[in-house]
Specification:
9 helices; mainly alpha; 244 residues; transcription regulation; single chain; two-stranded antiparallel ribbon; 3% strand
């Protein structure tokens, strides 16, 4: 057999042990095996359970602390953080994942606020509001396959809808809610919500249906279509968890 001359091979990259541990702990928290407020096992015990060095466990815990998932208390141990919904409207400083239960609770809040907002927008929208929403829809369509741009266009549409209500308090609440949702978009990106074409196409159709109802000043239809949209996104995330 002749030798292959001059061919460059890329070195195969493998995950660090600490990254594997971080991912497994993260999954345990997301699936509720370890609940918010509960204490994780000690570094020594985790090292034995994973059959790795204590330094690898410490590195994994440091990564989880950096994204706000856990708190390490000197002399007490490591605790899973609870998503603080009382601070939902406080400035967002870090993106983090939330557990399945927290995600469901957040969607309950979205359905309460955004479904009502869609009805008000249908009643009080202006031509300028419609143009803002339409621009967001165009940007969303052009962003197919690009997760970051798709996510931004999605948020832009929902904020334009909130402004269309003419209610300044609701507008500010939606702005802060969208910032809070940015903490949870990790999960959406992880399952390809904005990159999987069939899912993305469905999202586009759902947003267009909401826009059409608002444009036609059909409050009941806008209410119905927004609820349908939020339920579909929620079910997509739930289905992913169940498949896991």
């Amino acid at each position: 057999m002749n030798e292959v001359q001059g061919m460059a091979f890329k070195q195969v990259q493998t995950k660090k042990v600490s990254e594997v541990i971080r991912e497994q702990l993260e999954e345990m928290i997301r699936e509720g095996e370890v609940k918010p407020g509960e204490k994780l096992d000690s570094v020594e015990k985790l090292a034995k359970e994973f059959n790795v060095s204590r330094s690898a466990v410490r590195e994994a815990l440091s990564a989880l602390r950096a994204v706000g998932l856990i708190t390490i208390r000197q002399g007490e141990g490591t605790f899973v953080n609870k998503y603080d919904f009382s601070n939902m409207f406080a400035p967002v400083t870090v993106e983090r994942i939330i557990s399945k239960q927290e995600m469901l609770e957040l969607f309950q809040v979205r359905k309460i606020i955004e479904v009502g907002a869609a009805s008000l927008a249908a009643l009080y929208r202006t031509e300028e509001d419609l143009q803002e929403m339409k621009t967001a829809l165009v940007e969303m369509e052009q962003a197919a396959g690009n997760e970051d741009l798709g996510e931004k266009a999605d948020v832009k549409f929902h904020l334009a809808l909130a402004r269309a209500t003419g209610n300044s308090i609701l507008k500010d609440m939606m702005q802060q809610l969208s910032d809070t949702l940015g903490k949870t978009m990790y999960e959406s990106r992880r399952i390809g919500l904005f990159s999987d074409k069939p899912t993305f196409d469905r999202l586009q159709v759902e947003h267009e249906a909401i826009f059409e109802a608002i444009e036609n000043q059909d409050a009941n239809k806008a209410n119905e279509k927004m609820l349908e949209h939020l339920k579909n996104v929620e079910n997509t995330l739930i289905a992913y968890h169940q498949d896991k």
